[in-house]
Amino acid sequence: MDKNNIYIASLAGLTIIIGNVIALRQQNLKRMFAYSSIAHAGYLLVAVATLGGGYFLLDTVWFYLMAYVLMNIGVFAVIQLLSSQSGSEDISILAGLGRKSPYLAMAFTIFILSLAGIPGTTGFIGKLNIFLGTFITEPGHFVLAGIMIAGTIVSYVYYFGLLVQVFFRPIHSEKVIKIRPGLYAVLIICVMGTILLGVAPNIAFDFIHDQFGDFTDFISSK
């Protein structure tokens, strides 16, 4: 591994660790997901450090970014809706959401499962591609693979802690949640994309190959 890759790999490992550890301590939802986003940036840096460039890097980064956009737009849409109507950004605003608004809770759960990298979601495929990429080159990047596993396990604590609030805590407020049609459309698109690309990831890969095949060849030739 050259010096540049060593620097990127070190930055990737630190970013994953710091982002997840700080997110673990947050009670404010927006701050929690902001630090979670830092950890996700670290996963992308792992791909850059291990794959180096070319065909596999483009595929991996493209898919992960698509997954990240879908699940984060969805989760932040739910958080913004709840925080704007409750006047708070504390995780307690999620309490009892499963009983109060089952469909909203289900959408939120799908986004959380994807962020956590649970099979059947785009987040799982995205993380799996990056994880497998750590073993493609010789020698394998076993330390980065280990950091990815550890970071993912830590993220389970705060992600699934949110789902505990949603399904196992008393209702935070009896106030009716009003969802505008535009937000419904956003949530439906994000949910469908998160599930569809989780079970049929080739749709995303075929799209980039069909639309940007020449660009892929250009990168691969470098």
Instruction: Kindly estimate the percentage of residues that lie in beta strands according to DSSP.
Output: under 5%
Low-confidence blocks of residues? 218-222
Shape: globular
State the major sheet: none
Measured between the Cα atoms of the first and last residue, the distance is 18 Å
Total domain modules: 1
Number of helices: 10
Explain briefly what this protein structure is:
With 222 residues, the protein is mostly helical. It has helices at 3-24, 29-51, 55-86, 97-100, 102-116, 122-133, 142-168, 181-199, 202-211, 213-220. Mean pLDDT is 89; it is low at 218-222.
Q: How does this structure look, described?
A:
This protein is an all-alpha fold. It has 10 helices and no strands. It is globular and about 55 Å long.
Q: What are the defining features of this structure?
A:
222 residues, mainly alpha, 10 helices, 77% helix, 0% strand, disordered C terminus
SSE map:
Blueprint: H1 3-24, H2 29-51, H3 55-86, H4 97-100, H5 102-116, H6 122-133, H7 142-168, H8 181-199, H9 202-211, H10 213-220
Helix pairs in contact: 1-2, 1-7, 2-3, 2-6, 2-7, 3-5, 3-6, 3-8, 5-7, 5-8, 6-8
